[in-house]
Design a protein that fits this description.
42% of the residues lie in helices and 23% in strands. It is built from six helices and ten strands. It has a three-stranded antiparallel β-sheet with strand order 3-6-7, with no helix packed on it. It has a three-stranded antiparallel β-sheet with strand order 4-5-8, with no helix packed on it. A two-stranded antiparallel ribbon has the order 1-2. A hairpin with a 2-residue loop joins strand 6 and strand 7. Helix 3 crosses helix 5. It is globular.
């Protein structure tokens, strides 16, 4: 192929045009990536933006979560979670989710669901794990995996009213974490401490938030 001077100039102009388009697209992608830094699946940029927004307007941080419960039969009941209030508005975007609760036969149930004290361990597991990952992500620590196990001790003499000296609830709860990340054991231990410090469920259990229970007389 023979290029004349005019064709060469046309070719160069077209090349510059496409090069500029490519650079603009690439630059936009880089900016978008910078604007949405992801660590462990957490949008860290959005996390810090949320923190800054709450600093300017603290009421954004006030949330109210809700659950309802209906007795089915025997020791079987069903809780439902749907809406909540947060970030200055009601949120009805989620479909309702039911959680069946029951006792095993040894505790006079029919295994229609797991018992409530097990759900407490599940809630603790989710909250500690989420808190650990969120704070590690904010520090830029990449995690390959997190596993944890939970054990709780209950003496039924408290529940059955046989002894005032025995607590009605858990006497002890033990949590064990395994963390797969390219950091030292000291850093992993710090991650576990941060999980405890910032987990709402952990702090509710260990610091006993006030709970008021009333008879609902509305019909």
């Amino acid at each position: 192929m023979i290029f004349t001077a005019r064709k060469m100039y046309t070719f160069l102009d077209n090349w510059k045009c496409w090069a500029n388009i490519y650079l603009k697209i690439h630059r936009r992608e880089v900016i978008e990536m910078a604007d949405n830094k992801m660590v462990n699946g957490v949008n860290v940029t959005e996390l810090f933006n949320t923190i800054e927004a709450i600093k300017d307007k603290p009421d954004i941080a006030k949330f109210k979560f809700r659950a309802t419960n209906k007795w089915i039969n025997g020791t079987h009941c069903r809780a439902t979670i749907k809406d909540f209030y947060g970030a200055l508005k009601e949120d009805n975007s989620r479909l309702p989710v039911d959680y069946d609760m029951d006792e095993p036969p040894v505790l006079l149930g029919n295994n229609e669901g797991r018992n409530p004290v097990e759900y407490l361990l599940v809630a603790l597991s989710g909250c500690l794990t989420t808190s650990l990952v969120a704070h590690a992500s904010a520090k830029g620590i990449k995690i390959q995996g997190v596993q944890s196990r939970y054990e709780g001790d209950i003496d039924l003499r408290g529940f059955l009213g046989l002894s005032d000296d025995v607590p009605v609830g858990y006497q002890n709860i033990r949590v064990y974490f395994k963390i797969d990340a390219d950091v030292s054991d000291k850093q992993k231990e710090e991650m576990v401490r941060m999980a405890q410090k910032y987990s709402p469920v952990f702090n509710t259990i260990t610091k006993s938030a006030p709970v008021s229970v009333h008879l609902d007389k509305q019909k």
